[in-house]
Amino acid sequence: MSITERIAYIKGLAEGLDLDKESKEGKLFTAIIEALDDIALEVTDMTERVDMIDCDLADVEDYIDELEESFDDDWDDDWYDEDEDEDDEDDGVYEFECPNCHETVYFDDSIFEDDDDDFELECPACGAKLDSLFDFEEDDDEGDDE
Length: 146
Hints:
The chain is 51% helix and 7% strand. It is mainly alpha-helical. Strands 1-2 form a two-stranded antiparallel sheet.
């Protein structure tokens, strides 16, 4: 007997008892039967949906694992390998370790193009001045010695 058939049977029993639906007990039984009826409809609906999918959960998990492996392989091959080969090229981004907080920080080479004499380079993590790591003085006499 299905769950909906069992609920229909319980409804019939309640009607056969000729309970007063206005009494406390009658209201309680009526509410319980209505809730059971709603639950039975939900369970039936979910069962139909699962049957429509018509696949085993283990098959779905295997498929997801295959997709993850494929994605990981493709990502590693197409992304990281290319970056490793391009590390020797000047990409305009410089990596430094802050001597104060030891955080790794990155700077775009455009910050070095600033013509401002009061330019100060600060660690974005702790705010320490990093000017001592760089020689910002332009040495124009270097090429004149020849």
